[in-house]
Structures are given as C-alpha cells and as structure tokens.
Amino acid sequence: MTKPLLQLALDHTSLPEALEAVKVLHPYIDIIESGTILCVSEGMKAVRELRTLYPDHILVCDLKVADAGEMLANEAFNAGANWMTVICAAPLATMASAQKVAAARNCEIQIELFGHWTIEDAKEWVKLGITQAIYHRGRDAQASGQTWGQKDLDLMKQLSDVGIQLSVTGGITPEDLHLFCDISVKAFIAGRALAQAPDPAESIDAIWGE
Amino acid sequence: MTKPLLQLALDHTSLPEALEAVKVLHPYIDIIESGTILCVSEGMKAVRELRTLYPDHILVCDLKVADAGEMLANEAFNAGANWMTVICAAPLATMASAQKVAAARNCEIQIELFGHWTIEDAKEWVKLGITQAIYHRGRDAQASGQTWGQKDLDLMKQLSDVGIQLSVTGGITPEDLHLFCDISVKAFIAGRALAQAPDPAESIDAIWGE
Predict the structure, then answer these.
(1) Model confidence over A25-63: pLDDT tens digits?
(2) Between helices A15-25 and A45-53, what is the axis angle to 10°?
(3) A93 min Cα distance to partner chain B (Å)
(4) Minimal CA–CA distance to B46: which of B15, B12, B78?
(5) Which residues of A are catalytic?
(6) Does the annotation count B112 as an active-site position?
(7) Is A98:A65 a contact under the CB 8 Å cutoff?
(8) What's the average model confidence in pLDDT over B123-136?
C-alpha cells in the first residue's frame, strides 16, 4: 500500500503551546490537525494562525460537526482548513451540506466514527461523495482499557471495501502497525505521543517502523 | 407542569453580534446558550464574556462533546458555563468523565440527541447521574422538511419516564406547544426566531402562548 501520511493532532488548550509543538515537528509531518480541544479553546483563530504559518501542510479542523454542516464548514474552510470532521451520528442532511461546501472548495469531509454506526451508513456517506473517515479508540475508551482488536480490524476492512480511506488514531504503537496492512490507511494520527516526545524524530521513525 | 424555562441560543459567528442579541433579550430569558457555531468561531472567550456580562443567567456551552469529556468540561466550566452538552454518540466513558467534572462543580451535563440512540442508552445516562437531554429537529433536518410528529412525542415521553428532563428545540411555533404537555420539559430553546424578531417581547409571548 502507499505509505500513509503522518498527522499531528494538536490537542492543546493554549495556542502558543500548540504552535511550539508544530514548530518542532512540522518537518516530519504531512498533516496538522487543530484538535477539538484547541478549536474549542481558541476558536478559528487557531486554524487561521496555523494556515498562515504552514501554508503547504494539509490542515484538519477537527470539529466533530453534528449539525449546521454548511455554516461550520464555511467557518473551518474560511479559516484555512483543507479537511473538516463530521461526527458519524450527524444526520445525513448535515453531512450533505458540509460535503457540498467542501466539494465546491476542493476540500474534504472526514467522518469521525464514534458510538453507533453501520456499514450501511458508510455506503450513504460514499454516495454523498465523502470518502474519508477517522477510526479510533477515543481518549476515554483508551483510558478505560479498550485496545485494538479483531473487531476493529474487521470493521476497518469493511470500510476500506466500500471505498472509505481511513485515518487511524488512538495510542498506536510501532508493534500495532502490521495490523493495518490490509486496510486503506490514509494517515496515522499521533498527538501526545509526538508532541511530548523527548526526541520526536526518533518517535516518528518508531511510528513508521523504520 | 412547571412552566418551562426559556433558552436563547446564540448561533452567531461573531461575538459582538451575539452580545447585541443578548443585550436586547436578556430580561426575557432564563438561559443563555453559547451555540456550537459561536463556540467554534470565538472559542471559550464567548462563554467568558457572557458569564461576566450576565452573572445570574444559566449559561450553556453547546459543545456537543464526543471525546475528551474531562478536558472539555473543564474548559467549559472554567469559562463560566453551568451546563455543557455531550453528543449522544459519545462513549459512556466520555459522558462519565464529563459528568464527574460537572457534579464536582454543581454543574450539569446535557445529552444532545442526534442520530442513533435508544432508551436503553438513556437509562445508562441516568445511572451516571445525567438527567438532562436536548431533543430537536436539527437545522438541516428542519430545512429538509422534517416536522414534529407522534414518533418524536412518543420518544420524548419515554425519556421523561426514565428520568430525563428535556430541552426542546427546532422551529417550535406557538401552535406546537400543546404537543409537549405530557413531557418533562425543562426548557424551550429558541434561536433565530428570537434573535431576529422585530419585536422580541411579542415573540416571547407567542412562544409561551400567552
């Protein structure tokens, strides 16, 4: 498979701290994500500043939109994002309105997979023109001990088969990477593992298994 | 039933415009909501300014949290919110961590009902100590023609019966109000209908059916 991209998730509450992390790591990454926490804390100022400082990186605005797809897509893309996340529980109408804004600007919507969803839902997303989703163990699920299992991998394979490219996140270690070899992985997303690493370059090599 | 509270949803992208709307309407409302769009656009500055200007109103931070419950609850409540919304698709672990922060501060979590959820889910929320939810036709669903129907009312009644108080929103007209008489309605939420009304006081009387 094509070598997946590497995405740095900025889950800081302070924009200066987030910018400090990107300053160190930007040569090693393909995608910068303004995480939900950063967006909530600082608003679209965070996305605007990241776009100004890093004009050539793919920039993700992780809003996990649940309603008002058109308005929030305009907010995110006006601020300079290339991709914006919509939560899988959002009504199809919300996904459609966000996707319409995205498509008109050569931007993309990513569906954030959380809680209840089915492969039938995924087929509907593809019909709308949405071909990216984010698969993860969430922060809280991770903290409560859930791990990558065959059930996750089977679901990811099914999503790949209906035409969804996946970005994968949630405490991925180098030992986990082989698990994803049959799956259409667009990007691996790392947050604290990179941002807090004493030697980020070494951590990135570890993530790529190089 | 007790007279429900009236909540003004601020769905502006500009904080000055939102503050202008509250300035006119605050004497008539019980609850001020910093809507998702306002939170996204301006960050927690919006909540902080509303708290400073209106110390006695209930203040809702409508983040529709899907992960990182503890961090986002701290963000919202540190900024001065009394209530924060969590999306129904969030993992129970997220709801639990948000609720723990809320309970320790005498604040409350509201579950935002969107997409797939069941009454069994609602019973789990109540077990966590969460007793509020928001029931609505979303902006996009509304635009695509969905209306209040018996199915909505039956679901709301079932939620009431398991101990969930509901805030209800989504293009409610005075003619709709009688539909909610069997339901434990905590608040009616109005946004554009109030904020853009030529005579807000008259609109409020209309909403209350007075």
Answers:
(1) 999 999 999 999 999 999 999 999 999 999 999 999 999
(2) 30
(3) 6
(4) B15
(5) 36-37, 64, 67-68, 72, 112, 136, 139
(6) yes
(7) yes
(8) 96
pLDDT for B150: 77
Contact A71, B39 (CB under 8 A): no
| C-alpha–C-alpha distance, residues A161 and A80, integer Å | 31
| B195 annotated active-site | no
Q: Where are the alpha helices (DSSP H) in B132-191?
A: 139-143, 150-161
Task: State both tokens at B64.
Answer: 């529709």
Distances (CA, A) of B21 to A75, A102, B12, B14, B168: 20, 30, 9, 11, 21
Give yes or no for a contact between B133 and B155, defined as CB atoms under 8 angstroms apart: no
Q: Residue B112: closest CA among chain A residues belongs to which residue?
A: A66
Single out the residue of A26, A80, A16, A27 nearest to residue A52, CA to CA: A80
Tell me what pLDDT residue B175 has: 75
- Three-state SS for B157? helix
Q: Show the low-confidence residues of chain A (pLDDT under 50).
A: 210
- Burial of residue B187 (CB within 10 Å: 0-12, 13-18, 19+) is buried
User: Cα distance from A210 to chain B (closest Cα, Å)?
Assistant: 31
Tell me the CATH class for B5-208: alpha beta
CB-based contact A40:B38 (threshold 8 Å): no
Question: Which residues of B fall within a CB distance of 8 Å from A69?
Answer: 140
For residue B122, list its beta bridge partners. Answer: none
DSSP character string of B16-37: HHHHHHHHHHGGG-SEEEE-HH
Domain boundaries, chain B: 5-208
Determine contact, residues B64/A64, Cβ cutoff 8 Å. yes
- Helix residue ranges, H only, A32-105: 36-42, 45-53, 69-79, 92-104
**Tell me: the pLDDT tens digits for B160-171?**
999 999 999 877
Is B161:B123 a contact under the CB 8 Å cutoff?
no
